[in-house]
Task: structure prediction
Amino acid sequence: MALIVQKFGGTSVGSVERIQAVAQRVYKTVKTGNSLVVVVSAMGKTTDGLVKLATEISKNPCRREMDMLLSTGEQVSIALVSMALQELGQPAISLTGAQVGIVTEAEYTRARILHIETERIFKHLKEGKVVIVAGFQGISRTEDLEITTLGRGGSDTSAVAIAAALRADFCEIYTDVPGILTTDPRLVPEAQLMSEITCDEMLELASLGAKVLHPRAVEIARNYGVPLVVRSSWTDDPGTWVTSPQAKGRSLVNLEIARSVDDIAFDTEQAKVALLRVPDKPGVAARLFGEIARQDVDVDLIIQSIHEGNTNDIAFTVMTPILNKAEAVAAAIAPVLRSQKNPEAGEAEVMVQHNIAKVSIAGAGMIGRPGVAAKMFATLAEAGVNIQMISTSEIKVSCVIDDEECDRAVAALRQAFEIDTPQTRHGASLHPHPLVRGVALDMNQARLAIRQVQDRPGTAAKLFGLLADKNISVDMIIQSQRCHVVGGVPKRDIAFTVARMDAEAAQEMLQQAAVEYGWGEVVLDKAIAKVSIVGAGMIGQPGVAAKMFEALAQHHINIQMITTSEIKISCVVSQEEGVKALQAIHTAFGLAGSETFVIPA
Ligand code: ASP
Ligand code: MG
Result:
C-alpha cells in the first residue's frame, strides 16, 4: 500500500464529465489499496476568467485582492471532486490551502511555500478518506491568516510540496499531454515522448518543460527526492518519470526558500584554449570542434561571442592531459580561418593558458533569482579573484579563474552560500543517460553587449549586481578573450542575454552605468533565438558539441554566441533561423520518431 499524491490540472477537471472521470481514476487507485491525496487546479480557464474580471474593474488591481479572487477557482473544483467521489461511495473531504496549513511567505501573487502542516491530512487519511486539496494557494504565517497564491501554474508546486511534506511514495501529475516530449511538437511534429528525464535536465530545459510542469515543482522534487511522473488524464499510458538523485535529508522548514545553491564544485585540472578573431560565418565552430572530436578530445566549457570588426572569439577548456592535442588542432586550423569580409583582421590567433581552474555553484533555486549569480561574482570580487570566463545555465554558474586562486575562491563561496558538506570535484555522472535528451528553443531573449569593460575583480559583480537589483535575470554570459589595453587598463567586451521584455530597461540602466564606470557602448540586439540541447549523458563524451554545430553549418545557420554547462549546450542564432535550427538539431541527434505527435485539442 502506497501513499500517493495525484494532481489534476485545469483541463482535467474542466467539466462535470471530466470531474467524474477524475473521480473514477482516484476511486480505482484507492481500491487497489492506496492512500490518496488529490490536488486540483481551477476548472478549465477559470483563473484566466478571474484575471479578466479584475482587469475590467482596475488596471492595476491590488495584489492582496487578486489572491482573494484567484484562490476561489480551486475552491470550486475541490468541492466538486469531493462530491463526485462521495457519489461513488468513496469517503472524501476537500480542504483549502489554509485549512491544510500550507504556510507561505506573505508575498501576494507569487508566494513561496515555507512549510506544510501534515496533521489534518493524516487524520483524514487514517479515517479512510481521500483528501482533496486546493492547489496554487496558501496562507501567510498563522497570526495574520492572509490568503496567498503561488503564481500562475502553481498547483504543480503545491502537489509536489505536499508529497515532500507527507513523504509520499510518489507524486503523479495528470495533464492534457502524454508526458514530456523531446521538443515542442508545434514546431517539430516528429517530437517523441520520453520515458524518463532527470530533474536537472528538466530544469535546464525550463523553457521547454515549463509548459508541462512548473519549474518550482521540479525544484522541490529534486531537493527532496520526490519521485514524480507526468501522465495523461485521458489514458493509462505510463507517462514520463522525472527522476532525482537520493534526497539529501533536507529540513522541511522553509521548504522553498532554504537554499538556492546546494553545491560548490571545482576543477583545477583544466586548461584553456582560445581562438581569437575567427570569421563570423556559418561552419567555423563546426569545423573546429569537428576536428577536435575526431581527435577524441572532450571539451568542457565552450564560449563564443562576436566582437568588434565582426570577428568571433571562441574559447574552450579541456582536461590538462589532453591540452597538447587540443592546442595542435587549434593551431592547425587557425591559418585556414582567415576572415574574407575583413582581411585586415588577419589570421585567427591561438592562445593557451594552463594554470586555470573552474569553480561552479549549482542548485535548483537559482532559476528566476538573479541575485544568486550576482552574489557569486561579488563573493569572488571581495576575495580579489579575477574572473576569466563565465558560463551560466539554469541551475549552474561556472567561472574560470587562475588556479592559484582556486582554494581561496572555493572557501569564500562555501562561506557565502553556507555550504558545509564537502565540496565535490567536477566529474562524470555514474548513471548512463542519453547524450541528448531534448532540444529547446527560446524566442523570447535579447542580446546585450557592453564594449570595453575593465578586466579586474569586481566588474562582473558590479554589472550583474545592477541587473539583479532590478530583478532582471541574465541567461548566457560571455566575456571576450581578446583584451585591449586602454590607458594602461586592460579591457574586454562582455555579452549576455536577458528576457526580451527586460531588454530596453536593462540597456537604459547600463548606459547610465557605462557613463559612471567608464565602460564603452551598450549594444542591443532583439532579433535573436536561443537553441539548447540538454542531456546528462554528454558529460565526458567528445563530439556532442561538434554534432550540434555541424547540424547548424549544414543549414548555413550562423552561430552568434555559444555557452555550455555540463549537461547543456546553447547557441544564439538570428531570430528568423530559430525554428529551422531547432528542427535541424532535433533531427541530427536522432530524436525524431517515425510517428508525428498529434497535439491534443
Ligand atoms: N489555477 C492556477 C492557474 O491557472 C494554478 C494552476 O492551474 O496551476 O494558474
Ligand atoms: Mg498547469
